[in-house]
Every structure is written in C-alpha cells, then in structure tokens.
Design goal:
With 226 residues, this protein is mostly helical. It contains ten helices and two strands. The protein has a two-stranded antiparallel sheet. Helix 2 packs across helix 4 (56-86). The radius of gyration is 20 Å and the shape is elongated. The structure holds protoporphyrin IX containing FE.
Length: 226
C-alpha cells in the first residue's frame, strides 16, 4: 500500500467521497418517496418509480450506487477497526460511557445499525421489484403507460405497525449517521477552517434532521391513514 493510502487522511478520503455520494442518492430517494404521501391514488409514486426503473442514466448509476454502498461499508468498517486496534488504550480506561460516544465508535455502531435496516429494506422492496416479483406488483396503467404498481407494494408494507416502527427508527438512524458524517467528510477533504467547519456542522445537523424527519414521516403518514 502506498504511503498516501496508509496515511489517516488518505484512508478516510474514500470513506468521505462515497459517503457524500450516498447522501446525494438519499436526497433523490427521499424526494421521490415523499410522493407516496402527496397522492393517495399512487399514480405519482408509480410514475416516479417507473422513471427510476427505465431512465438510461439511472440504469447506469444503479451499479455505481451499489459499488458506492459496498465500498463505503467495507472501507469504513475496516478503518474503524484498525483505529480501535491501533489505539486500544483510548477506549480501555476512563469513562466507558463517554468512550462509547467517541465519534469513531458512535459512527461505527450507527453505521452497523443502518446496514441492518438497509438489508431488511432491500428485501422488502428492491429485491421484489428487481428480481423475484410479488403478487402485489400487478401492472397499472398511468397516463397510457403500463408499469408496476410499486405503490401497492410499499403501502401494503406500511399497514404493518412493526414495519412502521422499523422504518421510523431506520430514518432516525440514517439522520444521526449523516449529522456527523456530512461535516466529517468535508473536514477529511480539507475544509479545516474553523469558520467553515462551524457552518458545515450546522448544515450537517440540518440535513440529518431533514432526513430523519422525512424518512420517518412516511410510515407515520401511513399509520395515520390506515
Ligand atoms: C420510508 C422510507 C423509505 C421508503 C418508502 C423506501 C422505498 C424504496 C423502494 C420502493 C425501493 C425500490 C426502488 C426500485 O427498485 O426501483 C428502494 C430502494 C432502495 N432504498 Fe429505500 N426507501 C426508504 C428509506 C430508505 C433509507 C433510509 C435508505 C438508506 C439507508 C434507503 C436506501 C435504499 C437503497 C440503497 C435502495 C436500492 C437502490 C435503488 O434501486 O433505488 N431507503 N427504497
């Protein structure tokens, strides 16, 4: 491994770039998912899902997104475990509760919980829509175009209170993870100026709150509706 990559900043760079890329995906994902709550006929959400499934640019971006997730998860876990191994005394004495909240450990645990949520989430929707199909995914006609009834699949899941709670927790975990990860990524990239860091920390909390509230709002909406 080159000396650049083994240096702490160099190693964190890949984690930061993939993290920022994933945040940009989540912006689009949240916006399109909120369509679920704007139109009870499901047409708006079905149109958005159909656009995402058929647009050539999105098709190219899908494997890039998958690689982004895999690299971010594996690389971040590896760096965090290496850091913990290199500095065990940091966590071995002193206030154990405080050490649990040390940012690196905190992000690792949050990230692991988001990963558990993500796996369940992909099984719920993505695998059914892309590979296995589902009896709920019948064909609907929206504006003369035949497409999958993705709305039926999603709204049906949110009739189950257990999934409502899981998706609320998932949204909050993602928001918490990003409220640290966003500014930390910019710091790694080189924004070490104190004024900018203060602004970025504020922005990170704002983005985290929007993600947590936005993703949690969707199951809450369906809980109230059904
Ligand atoms: C209420 C919250 C959410 C809803 C209703 C929702 C809905 C969906 C649906 C319907 C799909 C399948 C799209 C397709 O295959 O065309 C999907 C895929 C996906 N979701 Fe979510 N999602 C939610 C929250 C999240 C969160 C919090 C994350 C991040 C941890 C996330 C990450 C992903 C990823 C990575 C995919 C696969 C990529 C894709 O093809 O779009 N989702 N989601």
């Amino acid at each position: 491994m080159s000396s650049f990559m083994s240096a702490s900043i160099g190693r964190k760079l890949l984690m930061s770039i993939t993290g920022l890329f994933l945040i940009s995906f989540l912006c689009i994902h949240l916006t399109l998912n909120l369509f679920l709550t704007f139109d009870d006929s499901g047409n708006l959400f079905n149109l958005a899902a159909h656009f995402m499934a058929t647009n050539p640019l999105i098709k190219i971006m899908e494997p890039v997104l998958a690689v982004g997730f895999v690299v971010h998860i594996i690389w971040s876990a590896w760096i965090t475990l290496e850091n913990m191994r290199a500095r065990p005394q940091k966590y071995a004495y002193g206030d154990q509760l405080l050490s649990w909240w040390a940012p690196a450990k905190n992000m690792f645990i949050l990230g692991a919980m988001v990963l558990v949520f993500l796996v369940i989430h992909l099984v719920n929707f993505w695998i059914k829509m892309k590979f296995t199909g589902d009896p709920l995914l019948t064909s609907v006609n929206v504006g003369g175009v035949e497409m999958h009834n993705a709305y039926a699949l999603v709204s049906n899941l949110f009739m189950n209170p257990l999934y409502n709670v899981l998706y609320m927790i998932g949204g909050i975990l993602v928001g918490l993870h990003i409220s640290h990860g966003f500014w930390s990524a910019f710091q790694t990239i080189g924004f070490s100026n104190q004024i900018w860091l203060k602004r970025l920390k504020f922005l990170a909390v704002a983005i985290g709150v929007v993600f947590a509230a936005g993703f949690a709002y969707i199951p809450i909406y369906f809980m109230i509706k059904f």
